[in-house]
User: What shape does this take?
Amino acid sequence: MAQCTFLDRCRNSFFSSELAEDRIMTNIIKSDFCMHAAQSCARLKLYKKLGETGVPSDFYPYQREDANKLIDKNSPT
Ligand code: SF4
Assistant: This one.
């Protein structure tokens, strides 16, 4: 898979948050998700389901269960 299409958005939110000071974690996340496996990213799932405003800036790509809970919480009943 090509680079994630939401990379610019995450650069201005997630990668500019407190994570910006942790270069090692930033590089791991970009390698594990942004550059090769965005389809597994919990942030990407939120972007697609809830839109840009539905993705907290400090939400990690690993938080798949939390993403499902957020989606359930924000879906019409
Ligand atoms: S953190 Fe997730 S949504 Fe953001 S650029 Fe990387 S893969 Fe895409």
Summary: The helical segments are 7-11, 23-34, 42-50, 64-74.
